[in-house]
């Protein structure tokens, strides 16, 4: 073995010795650190595998990252005219809030008027002790259901499925067909009405079914026999129906030609005081979730027999005149339908447009401010515009409507007229001439798409206005009339999307405009 080999071995041994010495020193240095770290972890670290905040964040991934909740997205189109929109403010529930309520039912004390504040409370107390759970009151449950319905309606879009076993609203006849359809389905899913049982016929729980005021009796009958929307438990009701008939009061309470309205006024006021004393619901909302329905001309006057009834309650009226305190956002315009036999037999149907030789038709008595102007300009003066005070002998009123392209519907003493629905039944495009009238279901239907609206000042230009409508546009309006008239048909029993359900839907929308909370 040479000197170089000996030197190499010595160098290797020296290196190994140095390495061993270094490792020993490093080991002696690390041992105290490990001991100290273990001591610190045991005394300072979490005493349980997961903290409350950790478990909350892992099990509740729905919680938003910031205290404030974003408002629900607005729909692309507005379902209603702006003045009739439900109160869907920025404080409306979003999907995240619904998820929180689902996961922590009755833990979060929701205030539907101020959802943002409630959300802030949830975020700030999440790391503290959980709140004691409490049972929501019946009113809180109802308001939460309505808030979810508002959010669902607001989120309706063009991508919604369109399958429906009976009818799918489509076309320009609707302000927003998708939103209307979603709202209608939400109504079918949860809307419940309590009908007060107090009162005896004929003033209460009764009404005419075979006259110009037939909607009073038809609606009362359907509500009395309905099992889908009516509830016998008032604690589960979203709305409350006051089932009196103004028509019956005029007949049995009012003294003819006395001009003394006080008997009707006292009857209405006494009934409201009765249900207000017996139940908590009227006083709880000051009447805001209660409604009446009347087709008599005196319906609006009767509604002000009690101040809260006229100013707060939902009034479903045929005489929907804005100059007489009708408020489209709160009140409901319903159609005036003259059912002479109590059914639609022989009323619905008519020939095609090519078999309608008459341009426009009207026949009726002279009363109110509008009809004298119409008769002055057009009575027996034009073969295309057939206007009569009295029809010639042997001439059928219904046949004249079926043979006309346009049916003139002027106001009488009051703004409503049964001719509007008669025109729709006959397939005749209505021509509305009035002032201050809100047409039925204007929260859903775009009347200008299937009717002609003429001001009283334009009556002399009536023929010019109608002849300016091209044949193609008239055909569009005619087809739309055939589609929307299902919403004005009276059925017994009621059918989906008919006049009974459209009235209910309008009341449903007004109920969505109201939020009630316990004080």
Short description:
This protein is an alpha/beta fold. It has 18 helices and 10 strands.
Query: Reading side by side through the largest sheet, how are the strands ordered?
Result: 1-2-3-4-5
Radius of gyration, in angstroms, nearest whole number: 35 Å
The proportion of strand residues reads 5-15%
Count up the helices.
18
Low-confidence stretches: 1-27, 31-127
Task: Report the biggest beta sheet as strand number plus sense, adding barrel if it closes.
Answer: 5 strands, parallel
Shape: globular
Give the helix level as a range of percent.
Answer: 40-55%
Structural category = alpha/beta
Q: What is the N-to-C order of secondary-structure elements (H for helix, E for strand)?
A: HHHHHHEHEHHHEHHEEEHEHEHEEHHH
End-to-end C-alpha gap: 106 Å
Average pLDDT for all residues: 80
Number of strands: 10
SSE layout and pairings?
Blueprint: H1 3-44, H2 52-59, H3 95-103, H4 115-125, H5 138-154, H6 177-190, E1 193-195, H7 214-225, E2 239-241, H8 246-252, H9 262-278, H10 281-285, E3 290-294, H11 299-303, H12 307-311, E4 314-317, E5 332-333, E6 358-363, H13 371-378, E7 385-388, H14 397-402, E8 404-410, H15 419-426, E9 429-433, E10 452-454, H16 462-467, H17 471-484, H18 499-512
Helix pairs in contact: 5-6
Transmembrane segments: 26-45
Subcellular location: Golgi apparatus membrane
Biased composition (Pro residues): 64-81
What does this structure look like?
This protein is of the alpha/beta class and 519 residues long. Among the domains are: 225 residues, no CATH class; 131 residues, Rossmann fold, CATH 3.40.50.2000. α15 links the parallel β8 and β9. The radius of gyration is 35 Å and the shape is globular. The termini are far apart. The N terminus is likely disordered.
